[in-house]
Design a protein that fits this description.
single chain; alpha+beta; Lipocalin; 2 domains; 10-stranded antiparallel sheet; 9-stranded antiparallel sheet; 3 helices; 21% helix; elongated
């Protein structure tokens, strides 16, 4: 019997050592990026723009996609040993936004292109170039709630292939309710419309609004905003932002949480 116990004890000890070594060997350095979503916090050492959502989603099939600030992009990614990371942004929509937004977009795309390694520290992701310099930092995305959040329009598609800011002194809003209705102000008139979501897909019906007359620039803005709502095909939620996109990915409306 004693001769049986010693081999069994040795086997148990060997198994325990194997499990410990496997646990240590499973340390993936900065951690996996599969199926993670991130939002830009700093770019080239400067804080990201307020009310503009630049995002990055790492799909589990090497798919890369998100918002570059104004336009949506797709691409691929590949992680290697020693926290190596290659980001390959590809197709993008071709909307024009205001210059600060376009400048951030250009810097963000350049940061992705120049990324050679990364560090994931909990809910913070740092992209670095081949020399180890920080290019951008991103926070893991904790998206806002679509429903019952008071959304205020920051920018909208004016119907002329451009995204423009809301006229100073005016306010356009939206609240998506549980009952499938979205209500708000177009800047002059109040409106309501039915909406449906399925994952990140969204459709908004033609809005019904009051018939108050305001100054022509406000009326033109309201008309463009309501037309943009009706073209919605998808939506993205940031930590305190909501963006609506057309079927081709074009940006239609950018909202911020008004609370």
């Amino acid at each position: 019997m004693a001769r049986m116990i010693r081999p069994m004890a040795w086997l148990a000890a060997a198994l325990l050592l194997t499990l410990v070594l496997a646990a240590c060997g499973d340390d993936s350095g900065s951690g996996s990026l599969d199926d993670s979503e991130w939002v830009l916090e700093t770019i080239d050492g400067a804080e990201a723009l307020d009310n503009v959502s630049a995002t990055m989603t790492f799909g589990d099939n090497d798919e890369l996609f998100g918002s570059a600030s104004c336009n949506r992009y797709t691409g691929t990614w590949e992680a290697g040993d020693d926290d190596a990371l290659t980001l390959m942004p590809g197709a993008m929509t071709m909307m024009a936004c205001e210059q600060p937004v376009m400048d951030q977009e250009t810097a963000f795309v350049a940061a992705m292109t120049n990324t050679a390694s990364y560090n994931r520290d909990g809910d913070e992701l740092t992209l670095r170039d081949a020399d180890g310099n920080d290019l951008a930092t991103l926070d893991e995305l904790d998206p806002a709630d679509l429903v019952d959040t008071p959304w205020e329009v920051v920018a909208y598609n004016n119907g002329q292939q451009a995204v423009v800011s809301v006229i100073e002194g005016s306010m356009m809003t939206a609240v998506f309710a549980e009952d499938g209705m979205v209500n708000g102000s177009g800047g002059c008139n109040t409106y309501s419309a039915g909406y449906e979501t399925d994952g990140d897909n969204m459709t908004i019906q033609q809005a019904i609004s009051t018939l108050i007359a305001c100054d022509q620039p406000i009326m033109d803005q309201e008309t463009a905003f309501l037309a943009a709502l009706q073209q919605t095909a998808t939506f993205d939620l940031g930590e305190d932002t909501l963006t609506l996109h057309a079927a081709d990915g074009a940006l239609l409306v950018s909202f911020e949480d008004a609370e």
